[in-house]
Each structure stands twice: as C-alpha cells, then as structure tokens.
Amino acid sequence: MISERSTVVAAKDQVSCDLAGEAAILNVPKGTYYGLDAVGARIWSLLQTPREVAEIHHTIVAEYDVTSERCLRELLELLEKLQAEGLIEVRG
After folding, report:
1. Which end of the chain is more exposed for a tag (fewer CB within 10 A), N or C?
2. Closest CA relative to residue 49, chosen from 19, 88, 79, 22
3. If you ran DSSP here, which 8-state letter would residue 11 be given?
C-alpha cells in the first residue's frame, strides 16, 4: 500500500511524452498506452526522479486550487493505478 512516506518513481520500462500539457505513456513490455490530463501530467513529471509522496502532495496543493485532503486522496488513487499498471516503482 502506498502512503505519504512511500518513495515513488517512474518505472524504467516506459516511454512518455508531453502532448499539449497532457501526458501519453507507453508501457513498453505490455504495449499499452495511457493518457493523463494536465494535473496527472504534472504528477508524472514529478515522478521522473524518486520523490516521497508527501513532497508530490505538497507541490500539487501549492500549484492547484485543491484541498489538501482531496489532493492526497486522488494522488494516492492515481499512484495505486500507475503501480498496478507497472508504470511506477514504489519504495518504502
């Protein structure tokens, strides 16, 4: 289970690009494409280097008009989905 203290990073077996502020991600082993909206793309950009979930949470709250509670809930949901699809690695 991912928590605020977990360290997360984009997996090595993926390729991604920016598409007008959104992100397209290819899971190379599965050959599956994924798309993220602007906020998801910002989170994805933060995942390019290992970071604690708490750091990502604080960055998104500072940059977007969202409550801390909603941000954390939706961030954890997104990270769980990305992990389930093999797009991120979770440490700790």
Report:
1. N
2. 88
3. -
**Is 36:84 a contact under the CB 8 Å cutoff?**
no
What are the structure tokens assigned to 11, written together?
């997996």
What is the pLDDT confidence band of residue 12, given thresholds at 50, 70 and 90?
Answer: very high
CA dist., res. 45 & res. 84, Å (int): 19
Alpha carbons 31 and 28: distance in angstroms, whole number: 5
> So what's the pLDDT on residue 92?
77
Q: Whole-angstrom Cα distance, residue 88 to residue 8? A: 7
Residue 70: partners with Cβ closer than 8 Å, 6 or more residues away? none
Q: Edge-to-edge strands of the sheet including 22-27?
A: 14-19, 22-27, 32-36
